[in-house]
Design brief:
The complex is a heterodimer of chains A (118) and B (258).
Chain A: E1 7-14, E2 17-26, H1 31-42, E3 48-59, H2 61-76, E4 80-84, H3 88-96, E5 104-106, H4 109-117
Parallel strand pairs in A: 2-3, 3-4, 4-5
Antiparallel strand pairs in A: 1-2
Chain B: E1 44-45, E2 54-62, H1 70-79, E3 89-93, E4 103-111, E5 118-131, E6 135-141, E7 146-157, E8 160-171, H2 174-182, H3 185-203, E9 210-218, H4 233-242, H5 244-257
Antiparallel strand pairs in B: 1-6, 2-8, 2-9, 3-4, 4-5, 5-6, 6-7, 7-8
The chains are: A alpha/beta (118), B alpha+beta (258).
Chain lengths: 118, 258
């Protein structure tokens, strides 16, 4: 499949925080979608970029690679990358790939926003 | 928003494409001819744990005229993985083959200087992080020359089957970084993937031209990872081989005392 089914929408929940709501499959073809969403999320000056995986359909290894690239961009802009809504399976994948050491993971949106506010 | 993450794909068979959770690599069923060093017990590492600049390198060969599906090509690639490797970079799958969570042991030789013969040995390996019908991703262990992932995939592009190798890696420690930047290791590694794809195409009866593209994802060096040199697989392999006479003498002594 040479296309992505991923769609991403951005919510600016505060001047400092934007949430990217992810739907569908993240694979190699999702690069433009995720980077466009990041650009939109950053355009308001957000320092915290939060990925919402609650409606993630599937992610393959190329998708994990995209998250690394996104993480590098976020770090370069001195922003912070957080995530919530990962199923148990993808939490394990984040641990296996050690992305969990670089991206703070929370159970749900409320916990992620609480951590940002702390 | 719901209070707990749903698991809509808990029964998705594609989840089985991922390696099972593990904090360290475990080698079982290693080929008898393999040194099997620097892998067992090592943690898998991502590009975030490496030292040097992070590069994404993509190698592609168009298999024009091939009457096989991407899944058929990938099956052939998986089943014959070692034969596509160059002589100075041998890959040895464990007895289980290329499956999620399995290990491919590697015995490579690298040149000490650009243009000189490859003679410095490195025994290491990689873990299959992900494997589906058209994609295989391997993840490196601590001490491996590169920290990160290599993804091998086959797909259709403009009506043509394409085989691709893509790496997303940093040199693991300062010594590997020096070899990469100044002593030709980077171009040697590039040559390995060009060889693999050319060889794959040859075996499929196609004369393929490998296209290479490189993107510098992160130009920064991660000095906090300089300590990775402690587990440098190259250094440890050299010491292991230097200790071979001692091990031989010790084993001889034990045999004589029995």
């Amino acid at each position: 499949m040479n296309q992505t089914t991923a769609t991403m929408s951005v919510r600016n929940v505060s001047p400092a925080t934007s949430i990217i709501d992810i739907q569908g499959e993240i694979n190699a073809y999702a690069e433009n979608v995720i980077m466009d969403a990041y650009t939109q999320a950053s355009s308001s000056g957000a320092r915290n970029i939060v990925l919402n995986f609650e409606k993630l359909g599937y992610m393959n290894s190329s998708g994990i690679g995209l998250l690394v690239t996104l993480l590098i961009r976020v770090n370069r802009q001195k922003q912070r990358l957080l995530a919530f809504g990962l199923s148990e399976h993808y939490q394990q994948i984040f641990e296996l790939t050690r992305l969990s050491e670089a991206i703070s993971i929370y159970k749900n949106e409320a916990e992620a926003l609480k951590a940002i506010a702390a | 928003m719901s209070e707990s993450p749903p698991t809509p794909n808990a029964n998705d068979p594609r989840q089985a494409a991922w390696a099972p959770p593990t904090s360290t690599m475990k080698v079982s069923g290693a080929p008898s001819q393999a040194m099997n060093l620097n892998v067992d017990g090592r943690k898998p590492v991502s590009p975030m744990q490496g030292f040097g600049q992070l590069w994404q390198k993509t190698f592609k060969v168009r298999l024009s005229g091939l009457q096989m599906t991407p899944a058929e090509v990938m099956r052939y690639w998986k089943e014959n993985f070692p034969i596509f490797m160059p002589a100075d970079s041998r890959f040895m799958p464990t007895l289980s083959g290329i499956k999620p969570g399995e290990i491919l042991l590697i015995e490579a030789k690298v040149p000490a200087f650009p243009g000189t013969p490859s003679f410095l040995p490195v025994a290491t390996g990689v873990m299959v992080l992900y494997a589906d019908d058209v994609t295989v991703t391997v993840m490196t262990p601590e001490g491996h020359p590169e920290s990160g992932w290599n993804t091998f995939s086959v797909f259709e592009e403009d009506g043509c089957v394409v085989a691709q190798a893509q790496s997303l890696c940093r040199p693991t420690d300062p010594l590997y970084d020096i070899f990469n930047r100044f002593l030709g290791s980077s171009s040697q590694q590039d040559g390995v993937w060009v060889h693999v794809l050319t060889s794959l195409a040859d075996h499929l009866g196609i004369k393929g031209q490998v296209a290479v593209s490189k993107t510098l994802v992160d130009s920064k060096v991660q000095w906090k990872a300089a300590k990775n040199i402690w587990k440098n697989a190259g250094i440890r392999t050299v010491f292991y081989l230097m200790g071979a006479p001692l091990r031989w003498a010790r084993n001889l002594g034990r045999w004589q005392s029995q």
